[in-house]
Design a protein that fits this description.
The protein is α/β, with parallel strands linked by helices. It has helices at residues 28-38, 78-94, 123-134, 163-173, 188-198, 240-251, 268-274; strands at residues 19-23, 45-49, 55-59, 67-71, 99-104, 138-142, 157-160, 178-182, 202-208, 217-221, 228-236, 256-264, 276-281, 300-304, 314-324, 341-345.
């Protein structure tokens, strides 16, 4: 008599198959670090571009029934990396993957999570809708710009945070008189959580923006006179806010200023003209630094796998350190805690942007070497 397989009860969750890791072109180094931490290989995938710039994706091996994790942060170039993400998700869905988890350490368009004036789009919600429509069953994100973005998805979202790493790093600085500072009112909750774990006072900087990425006014709310100020933020975009915050804190009597942020976006010529990397340790990164930044300087990301099951992973945040004024402590291998990080002196200029070489991504992840 032939052996019959037991039927799965109706409505019961389907068990995912073998774990498979895939990576887009956004941050292949981060994907390799995750694969090494999990002791799992990265599956082959060919990403090419047609003559008119359109993407084409070829997944080398079968993913039918597999538990697929696609690692594709949507850092700059944001729109291109999003388009890759959508196309790869669609390819995985049409290849009958058992479950598709989009690992998006940096979530682009997150700063457009609400309407600030009439006729504004809510781009963060639009991206969430397209990610779901393209085929994602779950999303893993790191330090979203606004917690409300989790609610934009109709699928489960694991919102991870670098908070504990930041707290650990601040403790190992052994600052005698520290205050935790938010660079804007919106980050007060994030700063409050860090200050609570460290039992330190808080302050924040009020800023007014006449337009995106431009700050016209900054005022410090709270006592920072004689304190070592530690500014905690989710991302560094052009660096203009941090320059202004540093100047405002020094004007109010802060002894030193340090800035810890999860995502080192470091976009635009304004960043290159006002910031110069000084020292650091390369670990991994939620956002890769562009070729105009030396490759040895990068945001530090720790990645660990949860021991609960083969399909449950944890990405334990990244941080980079930006300072002005006090240069006694270094965050390199010999620095406090040895955690490393990206140390940028916001008071020093960098070489002119013309020294940076741009590239066009063509073919299967073939990249010219940085100068």
């Amino acid at each position: 008599m032939a052996e019959t397989r037991p039927l799965t009860p109706e409505g019961a969750p389907r068990q995912p198959g073998a774990l498979k890791l895939l990576s887009g072109d956004a941050n292949p180094e981060l994907a390799r670090k995750i694969a090494d931490a999990l002791h799992e290989p990265l599956d082959e995938m060919r990403i090419t571009r047609f003559a008119d710039g359109e993407y084409d994706v070829k997944i080398a091996h079968s993913v039918r029934g597999a538990d697929v994790f696609l690692i594709q942060p949507t850092c700059q170039p944001v729109s291109e990396n999003y388009m890759q993400l959508f196309i790869i998700l669609d390819a995985l869905r049409r290849a009958s993957a058992g479950r598709i988890t989009a690992v998006i350490p940096y979530y682009g368009y997150a700063r457009k999570e609400k309407k600030t004036q009439a006729r504004d789009p809510i781009s963060a919600k639009l991206m969430a809708d397209i990610i779901t429509l393209a085929g994602a069953n779950r999303v893993i994100a790191l330090d979203l710009h606004a917690d409300a973005i989790q609610g934009f998805f109709d699928i489960p979202v694991d919102h991870l945070t670098a908070e504990k790493l930041i707290v650990e790093y601040i403790r190992k600085l052994h600052l005698p008189n520290a205050v935790i500072v938010s660079p804007d009112v919106g980050g007060a909750k994030r700063v409050g959580d860090v200050a609570r774990l460290l039992d330190l006072p808080i302050a924040f900087v009020y800023k007014r923006r006449p337009k995106d990425d431009v700050v016209s006014e900054q005022r410090v709310v709270g006592d920072v006179n004689g304190f070592d100020a530690v500014v905690v933020d989710d991302l560094i975009s052009t660096g203009g806010t941090l320059v202004g915050v540093s100047q405002a804190l020094h004007a109010e009597g802060a002894t030193s200023v340090r800035v810890l942020a999860t995502h080192g976006v470091l976009a635009g010529s304004r960043t290159r003209s006002r910031c110069r990397p000084k020292s650091g340790t390369k670990k991994s990164r939620s956002c890769p630094l562009r070729h105009c930044w030396p490759k040895r300087f990068a945001a530090c990301t720790r990645i660990a796998r949860s021991a609960n099951s083969s399909s449950s992973q944890q990405l334990h945040g990244s941080h980079c350190l930006v300072r002005s004024g006090d240069h006694r402590d270094r965050a390199g291998p010999g620095g406090p805690g040895g955690l490393g990080g990206n140390v940028i002196d916001v008071d020093q200029p960098c070489p002119p942007p013309a020294a940076c070489r741009t590239e066009e991504r063509v073919g299967d992840r073939d990249r010219p070497a940085p100068p």
